[in-house]
Amino acid sequence: MRMSCTARRCAIPARPSRAWLKSAVAPAALLIAALCLAGCHNISDDITGSIGQDSVPPNSPAQLQRYTEDLGQRYDAQPYDKHTAMAYARALRASGRYDQAVAVAQRLAAKYPKDMQVLGAYGKALAEDGRLREAETILPEAHTPDQPNWSILSAQGVVEDQLGDHDQAQAYYRAALKIAPNQPEVLSNLGLSYALSRQLPLAEETMRLAAAQPGADTRVRQNLALVLALEGKFDAAQGVAQEDLSPVDAAENVASIKEMIAQSDTWNQIRSYDKPKLAAAAPHRVRHYARLNKTPPEDLRPTQVGAAD
Prior knowledge:
With 309 residues, this protein is an all-alpha fold. 60% of the residues lie in helices and 0% in strands. The chain has helices spanning 18-23, 27-38, 61-77, 82-94, 98-111, 116-128, 132-138, 150-163, 166-179, 184-196, 200-211, 218-230, 234-241, 247-262, 266-272, 276-280. It is globular, with a radius of gyration of 19 Å.
């Protein structure tokens, strides 16, 4: 069974929309919407190479606005400067201005059609703007089997999850984890993918591993809280949520998920869905490496989460 999720990276809300809560009826749609709303896939950026640490957008909204405006002025003066244009596109993505980020990245990709770093930025911008089929076409061009990029593999996984092909998405995440073992954002994406395919115990195990990593951020912990709540572990979910939210906001988040579950038989249907899958838990192979009908090299074939090379 495939379950799709509307694209566009979302911010962690204080609580799900009440209007949406009243409109959700189908258990499958309920789970999808809950994960899309409160548990967001992460499209990571590999900041090695010419785009370095100095191009990481600030977290403060006010600082981000100033940073983006400054880059915009520099971009207007030199629209084909690779460093400036890629940093500007990244800042626009961080600001939620996805369509503008696509326009900047597309213009740069037209200038540098063979530059894999530029194509990667373009593909990620497309994915965050919800243009999934275009992203599915562009992202494979951003790396090769002999020089794979874990952040591109993870982005390909996010696209496949949003298109509803969770088996393929999980294969991409596992391949990414072979290159970057225990990378928290990739683990978080894998955990969300398990949740979307209704494998909640496996989703929790993976999310806990992600949250335990030194680089885990707020999004990773809130995704763990969401999965715990979907399993009915409300006290544990609230405890995790309170690591980043106020007690009031954490309690409201958990109460909203409780309300969603109470509106239908969602919890029981999720827990009982396709139980033999959990027993098998065998990793899938990447069907078409990088969507170019290439067989992945042996060291990129999926393995269990977090396994070392």
